[in-house]
Amino acid sequence: MKITDIKVYIVWEGRRNLFVLKVEADDGAYGWGEAGLSGRELAVEGMVKHFREWLIGRDSRKISALWQEMYRGQYFEGGRVISAAISAIDIALHDLNARRLGVPVYQLLGGKNRDFIPCFVTSSVPPGDGIVENVQSLISDGWKVIRTGIGHPKEEDPMLFEPRESIALTSDWLVKLREGVGREPVLGIDYHHRLSVAEAASFCNSMPRGTLDFIEEPIRDESPEAYESLRSMTDIPFAIGEEMASKWQYMPYIERGLTQFARVDICNIGGFTEAMKVAGWCEAHYIDLMPHNPLGPVSTAACIHLGAAAPNFAWLEERSPEPGFHFSPDLFPQQPRLEGVWHRVPDGPGLGVEFNEELALKQTFEFWEAPHFRRRDGSHTNW
Predict the structure, then answer these.
(1) By CB count within 10 A, which of 39, 40, 115, 177 is most buried?
(2) 12 sits in which H/E element
(3) What SS3 state is found at 361?
(4) 35 phi and psi angles, rounded to 5 deg
(5) CA distance linking residue 206 with residue 163, whole number of Å
(6) 250 and 318 within one domain
(7) How many domains does the chain have?
(8) Both 31 and 177 in a single domain?
């Protein structure tokens, strides 16, 4: 039951690259994992190569011990590159061992709490003309939890982003959206950490109370004190944490009540091993999981099993209704399929995902870079 190989496949699928990893064992068992550091796949691949050198020959059943050794086996512990590599390997080891035992992954995590995983969808129309009609259409399709993107006045330069101009337009349209759809739907917005504390406070306070049910990532997460300051200026629930790469990074946000929804990214936090620890910590503080899931079928499947095992679960991010988030059945012959507005928790062994290695080997790597936004004065700002 020793690890015999770890293989990495970086494939272009939809809008960006997917980092897919396979762990193989000497008894024929194998498992699939995924890393989530989009745009920096080569760095993660390099880290996996370092781990592979000593993981081959190790007992594939000792998932927790291998996690600890990967994390603690160097002087420079932690960081997003290391944690993304650990995530992919940890997810694959859970898949491998569940397949070996003939059980779903969630059985390794304590069994399932639910039969279906509720999801939220993102409007394909940003705040502006057409958003009310688009969200009403999503509601007609059965969606009860809907997130919007960020509005901004139209510019000839697609790399221009001015926070205050965005705030004015976005807040006005969200008020119209709430008036148009009523109180029943859950409405949120992802501001993708593009605001400062003052800007985020202005945005939150520019809308009537009850307009939003959550705001996601209004500012960057480097400073818990900055979030603490913002928390004192608004009562809109926060959904944050997709950038975090360890339970230690989550600690102040959980302990100080700085987030109401934990946007755990299982492909960056450290896989199932670390995600379940964060989930338990959140449960003790009455915080529900709201996993970040912008990646591929392996990520979605892992989130489904995490959502099945964690009692404190709100909604899973589901991108398949959006253009560009459909994954080839040739590359992923077995992958999660949305049923209405949720995913059914699978009962088969492992994650329930298969990947076409032969097809992946025919692809060549394509660089993808996130947009580098600028302001009118020429300075750089967050994407």
Answers:
(1) 177
(2) strand 3-13
(3) helix
(4) -105, 155
(5) 14
(6) yes
(7) 2
(8) no
Q: Which residue, among 121, 198, 115, 209, has the nearest Cα to 163 in the 3D structure?
A: 198
Beta-strand ranges (E) seen in 261-310 are 261-262, 288-289
The tens digit of pLDDT for each residue in 110-122 reads 999 999 999 999 9
Closest CA to 363 of 81, 95, 41: 41
> Among 46, 80, 103, where does a domain finish?
103
Nearest alpha carbon to residue 356 among 6, 22, 118: 22
pLDDT of residue 362: 94
The 3-state DSSP composition of the chain as helix, strand, coil percent (nearest 5) reads 35, 20, 45
Dig out the tokens for 166 from the structure: 């965005």
Residue 70 shares a structural domain with residue 206: no
Q: Are 289 and 338 in contact (CB under 8 A)?
A: no
Residue 140 CA, distance from chain mean position: 26
Q: Could you tell me if residue 360 is inside a domain?
A: no
Mean pLDDT, rounded, of the chain: 96
